[in-house]
Amino acid sequence: MKKDGEAGRLERVSGFLKEMLLSFYPKAYWDFSKKSPGKAFRYIFNVVLVSAIIALALLLFGLSGISISLGSELDKFEKLNITGEIELREPVSLHDDRIIIANEKMYEGEDLLITKENITRKPLLCLVFRPYCWFNPDTTTTGIDEFSNIDAYRECLKTVIIAGLFIAMPGIVMLYLAYILLKAAIFVVAASLLGYVATFLTKHRIGFRQVLAAAIYSSTFIIIAEPFNIMVKGLYYIHVLISGLLFINSIVLLCRQRKVF
Description:
Helix content is about 60%, strand content about 5%. With about 260 residues, it is an alpha+beta fold.
């Protein structure tokens, strides 16, 4: 039974990957047009998840580059003294109360506590990898004045910045998912309506469900290419144009398949 389950999952994954590849082959759209809207939407949701995984991988790769660049840029500072005061109307709580910034507060097990007088923290790796605190629960308290010379805490500053980016990563991925779903939805709705109206006006009608399926599958390239569009400058809307051309070509072929041309 377990082997059958694993074989079934493997078959579904291979089928999904095959669909993704065929979405770039216009002649496959005749088969796509026969699929129910539910299957088409499940397919595109899986494509969005693949896109999010690609975006996460590129983000991690970018963070490694930021880490190297940050180290070399901080090395350029010979001396940097910063003085300032903290004055809050009420305490600031971040990362599920693991980071607290307050005018005055007793330490109560936070990963990082910043007050007007002191900075109390657990090892900085705790901010990124919680289980690390189980093995190294010690805290360090430093007077706020000791941080005035940033140059003396170059490595610490670098670690804090990278840790902050790691903490923000889940939120970034969720924002990306919402963004790419919205972008795909706009393309699918616009392409479906324009495609259906165009076939209606030219009396080369095909069903709206077929037009919708063509729009959904042709949006694959937009979704997969979007992480690279965000990370690499200069791509602009080339991926949208390619998906648009795939959609137009698929509509023409669908009409021909129905022998209306």
